[in-house]
Amino acid sequence: MKSLIQTIQNILRIPELRDRIFYTIMLLAVFRLGTFVTLPGIDSIALEQAFKSGGGAGGGLLDFFNTFLGGAFARGSILALGIMPYISASIVVQLLGAVVPAFQKLRREGDSGQKKMNQITRYLTIAITLGQSVSYLFYLNSQYPNAVASQGTAEESFFWITSLIILTAGTMFLVWLGERITDNGIGNGVSLLIMIGIISGFPAALINEFRSNLPMVFFIEILALGVVTMAVVALTQATRKIPVNYARQMMGNRIGQMGRGTAARQYIPLKVNSAGVMPIIFAQAIMFLPAALVGFLPAENAQTLAASLTNWTGLGYNIIFFILIIVFTYFYTAITVNPNEIADQLKRNGGFIPGVKPGKKTADYIDNILSKITLPGSIFLAIVSVFPAVASRMGVTGSFAQFFGGTTLLIMIGVTLDTLQQIESYLLMRHYDGLMKSGRVKGRQRGTVGA
């Protein structure tokens, strides 16, 4: 406790770090307040009560979105779509950057190309938000007609137009808010907005779970949650270090620091889970398709099949989900980690892997290692992803089971570690002890080569 208090005091002694943390907290508070501002013409109380009672279709799909948005989806908030359209647009642009030559050229242009890609992402965000706004309003009108005050009146057209504009403006406001946090605050703004939305539902889920079980059962669940959390931290931080040597370099009339004595040794850190949370997002998007198409399948058997594929606690759903995550882990790792680029970078900088020839041999060596570590990483990620369903089957309430793994836990841990790394870098620059005296938060150690 004394060490924690001393660390907090050290943080408050650094004016820039202190101001950035307070600025971040202030903007996150603005986001949370915005989730309680409802669209004109929406009865938020009636909508939230109907949503909790499960009166609408969609089930797990809607619960998933509502969890990420901190309840804004179920309240009919002006921020009901949250930052998710921007995430979708970013994924599309990132995929295009890996396969489309024009986008690949923009990626190689440095800052100017990145600015153009950011602009394309914003335009695409607006288009996606408009499409999702229409779907959201259709859903409210069809499933919760009592919560829409203007339904069947002459003001319905005005309600649609204003709601589309407000929902789109709300998402773009969150994009702006996230960028401000990234530039002037601490941590990645967009990721923090998602994490705060997820965490906002944790206290209520925890209290509800405590009331629903005996104290001993609740204690065992908390213990299990701690074990799962540590396992996910290990998965997030695990790396395979490939040693790299750099030859001597002449700097004017002297030998560069890297090359004095023996060749300088560094390493390439290849993450066991290089894809992060993206395979789960892709897999969930595929699994949501049956729910989206169920309205176009009049046959009773087809609707029954679609319903079974949207039951996130069902065996069939989780088997398909498990396989999709493994497939998408390999897919996303392949488009984000390019062994040829790493090999070319090493060759240009005079680096080499001991015992491996530069060029194609190095690229093949890195690709071989990446393939080997991706398999156990993808399997472990898939296990973590289906663990909420296992917890639910074992009696944990649905709202609390979501925190036993899957996207929610991975995002919470990933964003927390990234923010702690930034705070620790400020402390170490000012010659204070880091957040942990026994060692640094992994991920930004010295002597690494960007992978």
In short:
This protein has 451 residues and is mainly alpha-helical. It has helices at 2-13, 15-34, 44-52, 60-68, 72-75, 84-99, 101-108, 111-143, 156-184, 189-199, 202-212, 215-237, 278-287, 289-293, 300-309, 315-336, 339-348, 360-393, 398-401, 406-429; strands spanning 239-246, 250-251, 254-255, 264-271, 351-352. The strands form two sheets. Strands 4-1-5 form a three-stranded antiparallel sheet. A two-stranded antiparallel sheet has the order 2-3.
Keywords:
2 domains, mainly alpha, Preprotein translocase SecY subunit, two-stranded antiparallel sheet, three-stranded antiparallel beta sheet, disordered C terminus, 451 residues
Structure report:
With 451 residues, the chain is mostly helical. It folds into two domains: 19-200, SecY subunit domain (Preprotein translocase SecY subunit); 201-451, Preprotein translocase SecY subunit, CATH 1.10.3370. It has 20 helices and five strands. The chain has helices spanning 2-13, 15-34, 44-52, 60-68, 72-75, 84-99, 101-108, 111-143, 156-184, 189-199, 202-212, 215-237, 278-287, 289-293, 300-309, 315-336, 339-348, 360-393, 398-401, 406-429; strands spanning 239-246, 250-251, 254-255, 264-271, 351-352. The strands form two sheets. It has a three-stranded antiparallel sheet with strand order 4-1-5. A hairpin with a 2-residue loop joins β2 and β3 (254-255). The protein is globular, with a radius of gyration of 24 Å.
The residue-averaged pLDDT reads: 80
Q: Let me know the largest β-sheet.
A: 3 strands, antiparallel
CATH topology of the largest domain: Preprotein translocase SecY subunit
Order of strands across the main sheet: 4-1-5
User: Helical amount among residues, as a percent range?
Assistant: 55-70%
The H-and-E topology, N to C, reads as: HHHHHHHHHHHHEEEEHHHHHEHHH
